Amino acid sequence: IDPSVNSSLTINCTFRPDSSSSMAALISLIVSRTKDLSQPFQELASINVKSDSQVNHLVNHSFVATGNISATSDSSLLLSWTNPSERQPGSYRCTAQGVDNVGHQVVATQDVHITAILSITDQLNFELDSFEASLNIFQHNVTIFQNKRNQELQDLRETLKSVETTENFFRHKLQTMKTTMFNRTMIHSNHTYYLSEDVYRHDDINSAVCELFGGYLVEVDDVDEQEALKAFMENGTDYFGILISGSGVEREGRWLHQRTGLPVNYTDWRPGEPDDGVVYNCVTLEKFKDEWSMTDNKCHQNPFYIRYVCEMPF
What we know:
This protein is α+β, with helices and mostly antiparallel strands. It has 2 domains: 8-122, Immunoglobulin-like; 179-313, Mannose-Binding Protein A, subunit A (Mannose-Binding Protein A, Chain A, Roll). Helices cover 27% and strands 36% of the residues. The protein contains 3 helices and 16 strands. Strands 9, 10, 11, 12, 13, 14, 15 and 16 form an 8-stranded mixed sheet that branches. Strands 4-3-2-7-8 form a 5-stranded antiparallel sheet, with no helix packed on it. A hairpin with a 2-residue loop joins strand 14 (282-288) and strand 15 (291-297). The radius of gyration is 44 Å and the shape is rod-shaped. Residues 188-293 form the C-type lectin domain. It holds the Pfam family Lectin_C. It comes from Lymnaea stagnalis (Great pond snail). InterPro entries: C-type_lectin-like, C-type_lectin-like/link_sf, CLec_Tetranectin-domain, CTDL_fold.
């Protein structure tokens, strides 16, 4: 192309059916272009049998695209430039896509190379246009990424809100259960002690209830803790005993905490206790003759009501 000589440029992509050709029916014609054969071709315009001879083309290009297409007769796709500049050189490819007699895809291509005498100004303008096109693609991809990230953040916020709602629901239910199942509380040495209502004696179930609320069946570790429990129990009017941690099932004659399996290091047995190593394998803190002390007792007894204490660290 010499802009001083050529007033127009037309790329004519035409397909004529031939009985010797393997293509039995044409589906589409495509014109594409590359500035450098080392780079992939980029589609400029296309037409297909479903488009009713309407040409699809890139809006940002300065050419006029026209054409007609038929599955079995002559078809063409024309790209025309008025007053072409040095921006139009490159390799143009005409691609015909169709099927053979058994429905297999058939593709035929024809390339043409157009050169131009480029002025420095036009070359710079061409490079600038290419840069702007690349920048637009980059900005488009950034927008897609930002939209995707924003949607993911929104989904995460909604999920978090749902989790918080569910958590608050269960917290409310647990608080309601705690209010229903426990009579009153005591604080001692950075631990809170919850005294249950009267329930059937069952150390496994009682321990499980304590674990549900983040605690464990009270473990009396020293005399200070036992004295605090005694004072706590004395505030009641009809409490004769509570189930506390301690089991003699695993090793007869040695008492272990159910939660940890560690030995019970502090005991304050009532005189004569423990007195039954076969059946009485749990520990209760009971009031007998106005004195609170430990006794061995049955772990499961139904119907027999007793209270228990859950110990919960702050």
